[in-house]
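Narrative summary of target 7.
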Amino acid sequence: MTVGRPGMRRAREAKSITQEQLAERVRVSERTVRYWESGESAPALHVRSRLARELGISRTELEAHINGDTDPDSLELLPSASALRPVGSSAEDDEAAALELSQRVAASDVGDATLCQLEAIVDDLAIDYATTAPSTLAPRIRGYLAYVSRLMDARMTLSEHRRLFVVGGWFSLLSATVHIDLDNTSTARAGLRNAHDFARDAGHDEIRAWGYETEAWQLLTNKDYVGALDLSRRAQAFAPRGSSIEIQSSAQEGRALARLGDRREMYAALSRVATLVSPLKVPDRPEHHYRYDPNKSVAYMATTLAWAGDPAAETFAREIIKRLERQTPDGKWPRRVASANLDLALALISTDRLDEAVGATHSALASGRVVPSNYWRAAEVVESVEARKMSEARDLRDAYEEMQRSGTSR
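Modeled conformation, tokenized:
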């Protein structure tokens, strides 16, 4: 049995609008409005802010009408906790349900508690990025972007509005990054466009700079080295002085220059990175994708020198492997260890230490950390070994093709 929601009906009548007019304004059917007022169903969460505005009442008043006017027999019609989970997430991802609760009990439609939790989730995902398969992260990030999108219709202060845009910008950047890793070019570009829009509307130069740097990496993986160089420098123009993105985009510039064969400018870029990194200490959570730490500079130095054919790459590659293996005794290597093994292999090939190069390549392929966007780097090593007619070349090619088939990126 249902007893209806007289408070919702009275609010509508006080505005002198019909059920049909209200339905049109909140973009639902007239029958849906009748069901809301009769207590046969409850408004979906994503329309409640708009509904409250059209009725001329606060979100808190609307929630009181929805919940207070509903008898126990109709409670099953209210959204379940599973409906609050991000779209595409697994059943055990219940963070969104907690966020929805924070939103409802806050003084505003969004509230500080909700924004703080979203900001914390951005940090957690940026840290998980180093050791989690992009195919696992992608649906989680997509779910939180959908949640941010639903919040856009909510009433909020100017400060909350900007914070929400900043959060949306970081989620969009992460989405673009994992889709670059998955080699989903069009999806990655869409994420970068969204990140740019969020950054522009929030006036957030750091996100804008990270967007250019991320796009530079995408072009680098597609062998558009001139484009990558241009975007790396554009990122530095927006980067706050001394920030992680200033260092990262300078390092990205060095990698593009190595591919272009401009050693003089490459070494100048590496020198700038070294100067910027020198005052840094290893942070408490060093694997955060958007926070630079000294280990990253060692890894980038190894890659850049390996691409330039500089034998010194071996020293840097061995050093980063040693540091990161020491930091991860559980064997859950960050992705940089696999990349460093590929860099080490290139350096060893350049000095004709082919057996060691094959061993380093096998370590990278077997690690489960080579993502699709880096397959080309592994292919370069395999092709270099094959060109030298080594007996191990067949086994190495088989391992590479098996990695491709399985899509390994655990």
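The first helix runs from residue 6 to 14.
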